[in-house]
Amino acid sequence: MNSPLSPHRLPTTTPQPPPIVRQVSSVKFAFFLLAAVLLVYTLQKLDDILLPLLFGALFSLLLLPICQWLENHKVPRILAIILCLLLVLALFAGLIVAFGTQLAQFQDELPKLQDKLLEFFRDGQQWAQRKFGYQPMSLDDLKESTMKALKKSGGTYLGTTLNTTTAVLSNLAQVLIYIFCLLLYRDHLRQFMFRFVAPDKRTEVLHTVDNIQTVVQAYISGLLKVIVIVAVLNGIGLLVLGVKFAIFFAIFASVLAVIPYIGILIGATIPAIVTLVETGSPLQAALVIGVFVFVQFLEGNFITPMITGSQVSINPLAAILALILGNELWGTPGMILSIPLMAVIKVVLDANKVTEPWGFLLGDTADGDDSLKPESAEPGGLKRLWNQMLGRGTA
User: Fold this and answer.
1) Residue/partner pairs of 79-83 with CB below 8 Å, 24 or more apart
2) Are 264 and 343 in contact (CB under 8 A)?
């Protein structure tokens, strides 16, 4: 029997760790979808701010080697940046002058094309009446309905044109300002980025930044070279076929090449329609389309791979999805930015072991080693012919 004076002893208890709350996979997925929706909504709402900034960043990376070369030759940084901006403005001015001259010649021929188009329309209606009993529409009714539509929407078109012109000039000024600031404060921005990274990780981050710069420079500089080569090839093909305004259509289609896959469709359709109206020959219009298809085949399989190499290795499926998403977000500027942004995303994904599989998914199939067929050391016939034309020996 215990003594009444003995103290009462409580059972000793060890402190328990707090319970670990594990999130269910469905909850994580829901949060991921919510974050993705908020991101897309933010990107779409801030397009007036983000688009000039992104274009400024791309051009800054393209002009960075020129600016560094000028600085290495004892040119002050501010003066070097101003010279780079003047170079950009000169290139755009030259392109606008060359394109505008051809456009003026095309505009002078529009009345003749309009008359031939009305004649072609009348002949088509007569053919449809003979074959299917279609009741044709008179040309007077067509002109009257067209004039009513133009009068009704003329004010809207005028306002849209003015707004578009103002927006283009404003965005151009913003892009130039962003280029100047990004090139001027590039060292400060790099130090700012390093403050978020541990010292032992800075070399890896610097390597990733250099890869991004290389990819963007390879894409933009390669794209400019491809535009020139494609314009020359398209011009030669259209001149051989005797197409009117061959130089204008060649330049027009090559500029549209900045929008992959879709630009060539627009660039080939318009000259084919003009040729069909001008000559009345479907075969001639088909030959015009054939020229663009053949040049596109050369560009996709030989010209671009030889110029850019494997720097921008995005598979076609990822490129098409990027074009669709870019168009949904920002329209035509989004389609232009989609491929370089996708290439930058791939570089960032490849730099991390956790996200590297997603970078592999975006990459070209030639970059992987999952092919079951053994690779031959001997190049194919077309590639061997291309190497001979370039004066390269086969290994």
Assistant:
1) 81/179, 81/180, 81/183, 81/184, 82/180
2) no
Long-range pairs for 14-20: beta carbons < 8 A, 24 or more residues apart: none
**CA neighbor of 81 nearest in space, from 13, 201, 179:** 179
Considering just the CA atoms, what is the radius of gyration of the chain in Å? 30
C-alpha 239, offset from chain centre: 29
Indicate the pLDDT class of residue 358, thresholds 50, 70 and 90: confident
Could you list the beta-strand ranges (E) of the chain. Answer: none
The residue behind tokens 């494609």 is 230
3-state secondary structure 190-221: HHHHHCCCCHHHHHHHHHHHHHHHHHHHHHHH
Quick check: 197 and 205 in contact, CB under 8 A? yes
Across 198-215, average pLDDT? 80
Among positive and negative, which fits the CA dihedral 79, 83, 88, 93?
Answer: positive
CA distance 55 to 63: 12
For residues 227 and 277, is the Cβ–Cβ distance under 8 A?
A: no
The dihedral formed by the CA atoms of 120, 126, 129 and 130, expressed in degrees to the nearest 10: -120
Residue-wise over 273-311: b if at least 16 C-beta within 10 A, else e? ebbbbbbeeeebbebbeebbeebbeebeeebbbbbbeeb
Phi and psi based region of residue 230 (left: phi greater than 0; alpha: psi -120 to 50; beta: remaining) = alpha
Query: 3-state DSSP call for residue 370?
Result: coil
**How far is the C-alpha of 70 from the C-alpha of 84, rounded, in Å?**
9
**3-class secondary-structure state, position 120:** helix
Q: Are 329 and 271 in contact (CB under 8 A)?
A: no
Among 75, 59, 51, 93, smallest CA distance to 179 is for: 59
Q: How far is CA 169 from the centre of its chain?
A: 21
pLDDT mean across residues, the chain: 75
3-state secondary structure at position 314? strand
* Nearest C-alpha neighbor of 304 from the set 221, 248, 187: 221
Query: Distance (Å, rounded) from C-alpha 230 to C-alpha 238?
Result: 12
Residue appearing with tokens 């092919």: 371
Token pair 């539509």 is found at 149
pLDDT at position 376 = 46
Q: Is the pTM higher than 0.70?
A: no
